Amino acid sequence: MEIFISLPAQTLELFDDSGLLLRRYAVSTARNGAGELSGSHCTPRGRHLIRARIGAGCAPNTVFVRRRPTGELWTPELAAQAPGRDWILARILWLSGCEPGRNRLGSIDTMRRYIYLHGCPDDAPMGVPGSIGCVRMRNRDIIELFDRVPLYTPVEIAEYRVVGGDWPALRAGARVVRERVFIGEKGIAPALEWDEFDSDPLCRHVVAVDAAGNAIGTGRLLADEAAGRGKDRSGGSGRMGRIAVLPAWRGQGVGGSLLRRLLEQASQAGMRQVRLHARADAQAFYRRFGFVAEGEPFMETGSPHVLMRRGL
């Protein structure tokens, strides 16, 4: 299991161990935005894990103070008696940072800041920032999530989101990233980079964008039928490719988020399997998402690659 929280999208996504999406929830993070400093009332970024699970078996509207049930159940009448109170309800998943110097130890320690995933009143808005640092969820959603995830489940909180669509919708962002990475860095000829498959109706694209809306990563999923390798266009299998992340965003989970969204699109299209050409030195990354290497390495774009495949 792995949890990904997008601050720009105000969503929490739960993935299985192979990267397939299990659930997507609307959430509400800090109204003060992203930040790690104690007292900032901001939501911390980076890699975390669930350090404690609190509230198993409690009623959905159970009120917690300092992680202990008060004996109260939230009602509109109770809320009217304490206007402005930051209600923590139902369940608590207490987060601990995994990156010393960023979200762990000292004045930036997520756990010492008491940052939780927790339930909140039914009338609290979701999908927009509104908390004082924690990640708010609907009571029914936090209870469902609580029952699914064990201790030490990884949680990534990021200042980017991943969108999917066709070439007309995502062309501008995808071109920025691919021109920078494939043409600029890797020296691939433009005539090879831009092909007729980008605009095929069965070709699906994903683009990661930062909080300002700038493209920072991209990838595509090409149905075999789109490339003329099948008699029908049902999308039974496909090939992932053109996966790239801008240098400033590498090592921050963007590549994994792109791959997970491509897997989601493949599943939604009814594909039974997908494959890709992985750089030989990147096989471990793709194995995390269930891909298995086949055959011997081969040269592609000037470097060793290997065919990798997984079922859906």
TrEMBL record:
<dbReference type="InterPro" id="IPR000182">
    <property type="entry name" value="GNAT_dom"/>
</dbReference>
<keyword id="KW-0012">Acyltransferase</keyword>
<protein>
    <recommendedName>
        <fullName>N-acetyltransferase domain-containing protein</fullName>
    </recommendedName>
</protein>
<comment type="pathway">
    <text>Cell wall biogenesis; peptidoglycan biosynthesis.</text>
</comment>
<keyword id="KW-0961">Cell wall biogenesis/degradation</keyword>
<feature type="active site" description="Proton donor/acceptor">
    <location>
        <position position="118"/>
    </location>
</feature>
<dbReference type="GO" id="GO:0071555">
    <property type="term" value="P:cell wall organization"/>
</dbReference>
<keyword id="KW-0573">Peptidoglycan synthesis</keyword>
<feature type="domain" description="L,D-TPase catalytic">
    <location>
        <begin position="1"/>
        <end position="158"/>
    </location>
</feature>
<dbReference type="InterPro" id="IPR005490">
    <property type="entry name" value="LD_TPept_cat_dom"/>
</dbReference>
<dbReference type="InterPro" id="IPR050832">
    <property type="entry name" value="Bact_Acetyltransf"/>
</dbReference>
<feature type="domain" description="N-acetyltransferase">
    <location>
        <begin position="155"/>
        <end position="312"/>
    </location>
</feature>
<dbReference type="Pfam" id="PF03734">
    <property type="entry name" value="YkuD"/>
</dbReference>
<keyword id="KW-0808">Transferase</keyword>
<dbReference type="GO" id="GO:0016747">
    <property type="term" value="F:acyltransferase activity, transferring groups other than amino-acyl groups"/>
</dbReference>
<feature type="active site" description="Nucleophile">
    <location>
        <position position="134"/>
    </location>
</feature>
<dbReference type="InterPro" id="IPR038063">
    <property type="entry name" value="Transpep_catalytic_dom"/>
</dbReference>
<dbReference type="GO" id="GO:0004180">
    <property type="term" value="F:carboxypeptidase activity"/>
</dbReference>
<dbReference type="GO" id="GO:0008360">
    <property type="term" value="P:regulation of cell shape"/>
</dbReference>
<dbReference type="InterPro" id="IPR016181">
    <property type="entry name" value="Acyl_CoA_acyltransferase"/>
</dbReference>
<dbReference type="GO" id="GO:0009252">
    <property type="term" value="P:peptidoglycan biosynthetic process"/>
</dbReference>
<comment type="similarity">
    <text>Belongs to the YkuD family.</text>
</comment>
<keyword id="KW-0133">Cell shape</keyword>
<dbReference type="Pfam" id="PF13673">
    <property type="entry name" value="Acetyltransf_10"/>
</dbReference>
